[in-house]
Amino acid sequence: MGSVILMAGDQREMTAGSRVMIHEASTIAMGDARALRKQSDLLESISDELATIYAERTGQDEKEIRKMMYAETWMTADEAMENGFVDTVIKDGKDKSKFDTAAKGMTGLLSKLFPGNDEAAKIEASLIENDTLRAELSTANATITELLAVGEANVALQAELVTARQDIVSLQSKFDQSLKAVTELEDDAANIEQHIAEKASELLASTGHPSPVALAEVAIELSIRAQYAAITNPAERSAFRKANWEKLSTNN
Q1: Which of 52, 76, 49, 74 is nearest to 64 (CA)?
Q2: pLDDT tens digits for range 151-178
Q3: Percentage of the chain with pLDDT > 90?
Q4: Where are the alpha helices (DSSP H) in the chain?
C-alpha cells in the first residue's frame, strides 16, 4: 500500500538506497467456499484497481504492471525511476523536509480503495484541509520573502542616499574652495594690472611722453573737435562751442 500512496505525489522522489515493492492484493480469510470466493473476487478487484493506478502514473501497460505485481517486484530507487514509479532519485543527502509535500491526488483514492470506511473519509478530509493550509502557508512565505527583499532594497537605497549626500557636501566644499581661489586670483590679477599701469605711466613720464590718462584726455578733446566740425547749423555750433569752450580752446 505504501507504493500506492507514493503514486499520489505530484513530484515522486526516492533516496538512493531505498526500495519500493508492488504485489497482488492479499488477505487472510477463513470460512466456507462462498466466503472464500467472495474474498477472492474482492482481492482480484483490488489488484485490478492497483494495476490501473500504477499504469496511469508510470505510463506502462497495465498487463505488464500486473505481471510485476504477480512476481512481487522489488525495485531500487534507480529501477523505480526507470519504470516510471518515481521522478527523481535523491543522492546528495538533502533535508528530509523535502519529502513534506502536499498529498494532492489522495482525495478520492482512499474512499475508492476502502468504500464505506469512515476513517478513510476522515483522513481524506484532513488531507484536503492540510492542502489548503500548505497553500496558505506557501503564499504567506512568499509574501514574507518579498517584503524582506523590499526591506533589504530600502536599506541599500538609504545607504546609497547617505553616501550621495556626503558626496554632495564634499563637492560643495571643494567648489567653495575653488571659488575662493578664483576670487583671490582675480584680485591678484587686478592688483598686478594696476601696478603695471602705474609703472607704465612712470616710464612714459620719465621719457617725456604723456601718461595713458593724458592720452585718453587728448582722445576726448579730438572727439569733441570732430563733433564741433560736423555741426553745420550756426545756432547749434554756437551752443556746442559755449558748452565745450574750454576743451575747444585748448591748444587752439
Answers
A1: 52
A2: 878 888 888 888 888 888 888 888 888 8
A3: 32
A4: 2-6, 33-58, 62-70, 77-82, 109-113, 118-206, 212-230, 234-243, 245-249
State how far the Cα of 203 lies from the Cα of 139, in Å rounded to an integer: 94
- Give the total number of structural domains in the chain: 2
Residues with Cβ within 8 Å of 78's Cβ and at least 6 positions away in sequence, in order, are 16, 89
Range of the domain at 53: 1-93
Q: Which of 52, 72, 93 is the C-terminal boundary of a domain?
A: 93
Q: Which residue has the cell 563637492?
A: 171
Residue 123 lies in a domain: no
Q: Do 4 and 57 touch, CB atoms closer than 8 A?
A: no
Overall pTM > 0.90: no
- Report the distance separating Cα 86 and Cα 99, nearest Å: 13
154 domain-assigned: no
Give the containing element (helix H, strand E) for 20: strand 19-22
Whole-angstrom distance between the N-terminal and C-terminal Cα of the chain? 137
| Interstrand relation of 13-15 and 88-90 (parallel, antiparallel or unpaired) | parallel
CATH number of residue 31's parent domain? 3.90.226.10
Q: Is the dihedral of CA 79, 82, 84, 89 positive or negative?
A: positive
CA atoms within 13 A on the CB side of 139: 6
Which range has the worst mean pLDDT, 18-27, 67-76, 128-137, 207-216? Answer: 207-216
Task: Please provide the DSSP assignment of 90-131 as one string.
Answer: E-S---GGGG----TT-TTHHHHHSTT-HHHHHHHHHHHHHH
pLDDT band at 209 (very low <50, low <70, confident <90, very high): low
